[in-house]
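=== RUN LOG ===
request id: a7f3
mode: sequence -> structure
chains: 1
length: 357
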Amino acid sequence: NYNILAFTAFILLFYNPFYIWDVGFQLSFISVFGLIYLQPKIYKWLYFKNKWVDKIWSAIALSLAAQLATFPLSVFYFHQFPVYFLLGNIFILLPLIILMYFGIGILILKVYFLAPIFEWIISFTNNGLKFIADLPFSGITSIWLNTWQLLLLSSAIGFLIYALVNYQKRLLFFAICLLIAFQTYAAYVKTSAMQQQKISFFTLRKNYAVAFIQSNKAILVTDLTADDKNFQFFVEPALDKMQVEDVLFINCKQDTVLTNFVKKESQIRFLSYKILMVDEKFNYKKIEHMPKVNSVWLQNNTRKNIKELRQEVIFKELIIDASNKDYMIKTYENEAHNFDLKYHTLKKNNSYLINLK
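=== RESULT ===
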């Protein structure tokens, strides 16, 4: 079995070496390895005389083996852990078998009038899984591991399993040490997050979102709401990764005065960092009093060109958000390049992170 698994992986990687970085490739082969190595050992933990109970236990052992083998990688990539994975896997087992044979039968025998039954079984299975997923405490979310944490956790679990299976005390002690190292490093990451001071400009297609982060709290200047999918898919995961637990939403047109944060008219001050927001309100208008800021944030296709900005504002860099049209973004970029001015375009580029500490 191991030889077949290794040969299959070799053939696929020979065909395309970049499969090694594919999430599906990694999880598939690790889960199969877990089934081959772990399932027989877990199955031997308990013995049942009843045939049906034994089959259920075999399915549970199968699920445990796959989940244990893929746990570090699945948490690393998907940042969540399904608490009721056993219930879900056992529930789907029977419908999956029925669907497999039913589907093959429909195709071979061409009894297409049975297709509605096939569709009903699929719908029933999906609804059942959704019901399990919607149960209270069905998942642990917002789990973020970096590469070092992944390596420590994977190594600890691997050595722990091998030590328990082969009754090796030294490896067991080593695995426990790795787990302690993992917990210590996780505590360090959490402590570091409590001391962070950052500004994050998010990359969005048409909207804007800027997070002013201090410790585990963030002030989010945005035109999005908490229910918006753009926030849930693009902004919220990034905030979770930075260990942010409390988010205050502020609209760009809303003046706000808080501790260490002031948003008044077109200026933002967060700690000692100052931002001037330049939008359509400044079209053909002169900026008075020559303000001194760290960054100028260009929005909504402002007609204020870079030459005028340099004459009216003292600043170090430009930030061009996605509310500007493509041709305007290109104009800003060309002008900034001509003046050898540092700039960052948020549209179709990585988010821009400013570390203040």
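=== NOTES ===
Residues 59 and 93 are 8 Å apart (CA to CA).
The longest helix spans residues 51-78.
=== END ===
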